[in-house]
Specification:
The chain is of the alpha/beta class and about 180 residues long. It has one domain (about 5-165): Rossmann fold (3-Layer(aba) Sandwich). The protein has 9 helices and 5 strands, in the order E-H-E-H-H-H-E-H-E-H-H-H-E-H. Strands 2-3-1-4-5 form a 5-stranded parallel beta sheet, sandwiched between helices.
Length: about 180
């Protein structure tokens, strides 16, 4: 059993890599987003990017910087199957997962204009924003000295494998498959 975590910038292709691992390689998917949406609904809050960020930061501050990821890891371990945990956002999450063993971190990035067009096409409840708001959201999540807040820059630096996803889905799948042959 291996566990792959995925981090990356907004709209870079994290979900596309998840699709490759789940549909082509039978990985089991654990989603921070889905975990947070359940928590947001328990708190009777509106589901949007700001609420997701604040609830995630609150859970980390009250428990530990790796709290949400540790919850998902425990579920993954019980499955006994190869798993993907999407989306890692703090260095503390990475440290916790690396200490558990059999863990690899994938990071994905792409040009901001390409990423913005992708989120408009994705059209989820958190994607109805202007390009300026998109860039503001990324700036807020890109770097922080607070261990309970998002720090995508540091997470990407800590990745075992980094994918630049400015091309086609097929190109990205090919890169992922090549790395998987080394790991599995």
């Amino acid at each position: 059993m291996i566990i792959i975590g995925i981090t990356g910038t907004l709209g870079a292709g994290k979900g596309t890599i998840v699709d490759c691992l789940v549909n082509k390689n039978s990985f089991v998917h654990y989603s921070v987003r889905n975990y947070l949406i359940k928590e947001i609904k328990k708190r009777n809050l509106v589901v949007n990017r700001d609420t997701m960020t604040s609830v995630a930061n609150d859970l980390r501050a009250k428990n530990s910087p790796s709290f949400v990821i540790d919850q998902l890891y425990d579920q993954a371990k019980i499955s006994g199957k190869n798993c993907i945990i999407e989306s890692i956002r703090t260095p503390g999450e990475i440290v916790s997962l690396k200490e558990k063993g059999n863990f690899y971190l994938f990071a994905v990035d792409a040009d901001p204009k390409i990423r913005y067009e992708r989120i408009k096409l994705r059209n989820s409840e958190t994607d109805h924003i202007s390009f300026d708001i998109f860039m503001e959201n990324e700036k807020r999540e890109y770097s922080s000295s607070d261990p309970n807040k998002q720090n995508l820059k540091k997470c990407i630096e800590m990745a075992d494998f980094v994918f630049q996803n400015n091309g086609t889905i097929e190109n990205l799948f090919g890169e992922v498959e090549k790395i998987l042959k080394e790991l599995v």
